[in-house]
Amino acid sequence: MLPDEARAELLDFEVTRELRGLGPSLAESVARHLVAAGMYLDEDPALALAHARAAAALASRIAAVREAVGLAAYHAGEFTTALAELRAARRIDGSPRHLAVMADAERGLGRPERALLLARDPGAAELGEESRIELLIVLSGARRDLGEPEAAVLLLQDEVAASGVQPWSLRLWYAYAEALLAAGRPADAARWFASVATVDDAQETDAADRAASLEEAEPGSPTEAGPSGEEPAS
């Protein structure tokens, strides 16, 4: 059942334009299901997936609809479905924008080696900066999955060396800290978890707790420079 607040006019304009060929009544139903899928994506991914599938039952040839099913399936942990639907969306519109999600779905299926293959996808060169960073984060995780933590560190170290705080810094620095920890560098990991905590105003992560825990375990250990380029205070 569609919630009253899932109004068609809330749908992204570009997606609305994709639906124009369906006819007004059908387009409105699809749009409302897509809006509902977006509303529930984080709090109830199973319900989001149900709405996305309802939209797909009405308009399966529209890229945005297949994309919605893929993303909802990913959030619901249905990784096989996520991959199938995101590939279908890409066949329709040609966009590589969800390569990172596809790679992470491969990890979720226990196939990190397949995740790494997506780095060679021709579409990877077309990604915007944020999408490119997201893909690198996933690939770093795949290296850790394979027991290659040093390679995981190398994948990210040039990116974290860049100056300035970006919208993706929280995820990037957290992933770098995880890679450092896996590589047996807890003091450096603590520094980067602490850096995450400085930009995590909404407390979306446990970075502050992890930094404190590592610092307690390694008191007085030297650490590498953080994102500001400054050495830790003595």
From TrEMBL:
This is Tetratrico peptide repeat group 5 domain-containing protein. The lineage of its organism: Bacteria, Bacillati, Actinomycetota, Actinomycetes, Frankiales. Residues 200-234 are annotated as: Disordered. It comes from Candidatus Protofrankia californiensis. It comes from the Bacteria. InterPro entries: TPR-like_helical_dom_sf.
